[in-house]
C-alpha cells in the first residue's frame, strides 16, 4: 500500500445514498464497487484526503492517478478529449514535487 484514502461527505450524502442502498448490510456495502463509485460520482460535496504512506515522487503519484482514471473512463465509455487535457494539467501540478510519508493531497 502506497497511499491511504479518506472520503468526507456532505451531510446530504446519506439521504442520496440511502435511497439506492437501504437494506444492504455493512459487508455488502464494503464489497460493492458500485457503492464506492456512487460515493465518488454522486452530486454532493465531498473532500478526498490522500495520505502518502511511502515516499512518492510527484510524477509517480500523478501517473498512477492518470492511469486509473483513463482506464475507468475508457471502460465506461465516458472518456472525452477534454478529460485528456484536464489530466495533462493535473500532471503539471505534481511535476517536480515530492511526497514523503505523511504528506497529504486534498481534493474537492
UniProtKB/TrEMBL annotation:
InterPro entries: CFI (IPR044164), Chalcone_isomerase (IPR016087), Chalcone_isomerase_3-sand (IPR016088), Chalcone_isomerase_sf (IPR036298). It catalyses: a chalcone = a flavanone. SUPFAM superfamilies: Chalcone isomerase. The keyword NAD does not apply. One of its GO terms (molecular function) is chalcone isomerase activity. The keyword Nucleotidyltransferase does not apply. Keywords: Flavonoid biosynthesis, Isomerase. Residues 2-108 form the Chalcone isomerase domain. GO terms for biological process: flavonoid biosynthetic process. Gene3D superfamilies: 3.50.70.10. Pathway: Secondary metabolite biosynthesis; flavonoid biosynthesis. Catalyzes the intramolecular cyclization of bicyclic chalcones into tricyclic (S)-flavanones. Responsible for the isomerization of 4,2',4',6'-tetrahydroxychalcone (also termed chalcone) into naringenin. Belongs to the chalcone isomerase family. This is Chalcone-flavonone isomerase family protein.
